Each structure stands twice: as structure tokens, then as C-alpha cells.
Amino acid sequence: MTEAPGVAPDVILFDLGGVLMDFGGLHRLAVLSGQEEGPALRSRWVASKWVQAFERGACDAQTFAEGVVGDWGLDLTPAEFLDDFVRWPAGPFAGSLELVRRLHGTIRMGCLSNTNPIHWQRHLDHWGLVQHFDWTFTSHDLGVMKPDPEVFHHVIRTIGTAPDRLLFLDDSDEHVRAARNAGMRAERTQGLLEVQDALRSLLPAGSAAGRALRSRST
Prior knowledge:
Strand order of the largest sheet: 5-4-1-6-7
Shape: globular
Largest sheet: 5 strands, parallel
CATH topology of the largest domain: Rossmann fold
CATH architecture of the largest domain: 3-Layer(aba) Sandwich
Helix content: 40-55%
Number of strands: 7
CATH superfamily of the largest domain: HAD superfamily/HAD-like
Strand content: 5-15%
Radius of gyration: 18 Å
Distance between the termini: 31 Å
Order of helices and strands: EEHHHHHEHEHEHHEHEHH
CATH class of the largest domain: Alpha Beta
């Protein structure tokens, strides 16, 4: 639920997967592992020591693939797994790119994502979304993952704005709570419609960003 408006934000920080991007990885993981897709599968994946290491930049792709194939009993070679893994992100939700294009230049923006070098390179090479951001904070570069408090303190120090002027949108309740504990304005949003609803609620209609948000894309 979106909190009552306070001071208008002057920075918007987006999570990527589940917020602006369609991450199809859990479906592929279910297919490859023969397990049921759902919260239990997601929890096991996120808690995997190999996922944690790869998304903190603490191991290379080959080590990550060997570990996942072994731990999950996948009927693939590590090279075959990596060939599949690179395509797990399905790309931006319809309208996401148009949204950030409209907002670009009207308010400062960034992303804060738990990700890895393989998927981040896909962002850079294929979708043209992150190029509109003033800051890109990725776990594999930072060496630490959400919801670790240091992630949010680092973001606040780097951006240099008052925490309550920084709006963070994420699809994880745990990440939203951690951001709020650091003093940031944070809202849980899943998918583009919820992102748009939150921004309409929190960006003043008369501000440059508010006008851009409410304008029709051309």
C-alpha cells in the first residue's frame, strides 16, 4: 500500500526484475529442475550459496554454473546451463521503456538491483532501459545485496540527497522494509501498473516529472 504523500521525491530508484522488467527465470528453473514453480522454488534459488556468490561478484560464471548444476541435479553441462541462463530475463514490461523515457530529464533516476554480470550485460546490450538512469547500483559491483543495510546507506551517500527525498520501488517486502529503515521513501510495486499508480500518487501533478508521467507517449 502506498503511504500518504509527504515531501515530494527528487530521485526515483527502481528495482528492475518484477518492477520494470519481466524476469522469467523461475519458470525456466522449474522446467530445468523438474520442480514446481512457486515461492518455495524462489526461496531456494535466492538462498543458494552459488546465486549469492555470483550476485555479489564473489565468483566467476563457470564456478557459478558448476555449483548450480551440481546442487540442483540439472541434466545439463555448466556451459549448457549458462547458455540457458543468459536468456532468463525476458525484457522490459510493455510500457517500461516509454515510462523512463518520459521521465528522463524531469527527475533524477537510478536502479538498484540484485543481479549478476551475465544478466547486467543483457541490459546494456539489448533493452536500452538503464541508459536513461543517472545511477546504476548493481549487487555484483557493490559486493553486497539487498536487503543488507549497507546497500541503502551506500546509495544515500552516493546520490547525496536526503533519504526521505529518495523514492525506492521494489517488488520485495523485505527490501522495502530495509530501505525504509535506512530512512528512504520506499513502496512495494509489482509490474508497471503498480509503478505508475505509485508515481501518480507521489509525484505532484504540477511538477515536471508529474506532467511527464501524465502525458501521452509520442
